[in-house]
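Q: My collaborator sent me two sequences in one message, no labels, and asked for predicted structures for both. Can we handle them in order? The first one she listed is below.
A: Yes, handling them in the order given. First sequence, followed by its structure tokens:
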Amino acid sequence: MKARVKICGLTRVEDVNAAVACGADALGFVFYEPSPRSVTVEQAERLVRHVPAFVSVVGLFVNPTEEQVRGVLERIPLDLLQFHGDEPADFCSQFGRRWIKAVRVQSAEQVERAFSDYHAAAGLLLDAWDPQRYGGTGHSFNWDLIPQERSLPLILAGGLSSDNVFRAVEQVKPWAVDVSGGVEQSKGIKDIEKISDFIKEVHRVCKTD
């Protein structure tokens, strides 16, 4: 089964176009002001106009208020909400929109508990733990902590690049992979060659299976 690819942290029209041209399945826009990849609602409106049919638009939030999420939804046609902070499941479920929950992995027990706690999610995204940062660390984590039996689609993130994503997909067999820093020239500025190489490596796993 082919793993899907989400390119996250897009801030420029040319990067949106590049990700689409290279075959990305989903594009992520960060609505979290402390992030160097953050976009305003006005910026996101311009960027999303360049996303064609059948490519999902994902809005990433970190511990937002209800008003912040609803404010974005009023203006941006998000297909999916991504909650990357400490949001409880009932908060994530209130917007009438499909959502995924990110978990910063510390233990196998924590991951197992997350599958249960966020059972209403459309997927569980596993990322590297950092006590100071909610994602975008550039570090991977111990993939052996991920259970083989999963009650939700698994999205793998954390330190992925074209150098290790083949091994990651082959070992973990995720539903999708999520990359930001691994396809950048600098924070928020993507590199079309890195995007292309990353997606080719993901697709190469399917061809070798």
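Q: And the one she listed second?
A: Here it is, processed independently of the first:
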Amino acid sequence: MIGIYVQEERFDAGVMQAPLHALGGGAVASFTGIARADHGEGGDVIAIELEHYPAMTVAALEILARQAEQRWGLLGSVIIHRTGRIAVGEEIVMVAAAAAHRAAALEACAFLIDRLKTDAPFWKKEIYAGGSSAWVTAKDTDTARADKWD
């Protein structure tokens, strides 16, 4: 079971994970990313805006989910990623993995979020308190974390 959701609406992590709990495994691991109040080049960040190309994005997320399923023998996984304007404090992304044992679920969850940051075609813009905005460039630390799974 693989669930891929790309949407503007907020989500309830517990509701999104419920189908994984019903698969009969021994573990469900998850990660939820929240928009944080950073101080960017234009001042205090009040929101982020995410853009994507729908068909390309969903395909990339499905590839990641299938890779995790094969590598860790998952019973199922869920990836949900929001797009549009997201206020500080709101959830942006959730990945969850169900497996027979915790090690596989935890490793698959880490793989999914690490690779999602570099492999999924999302473009992020920071919105600042003063009304200006700036596109966010890829971080070397994200690339390093993703590369460790090769």
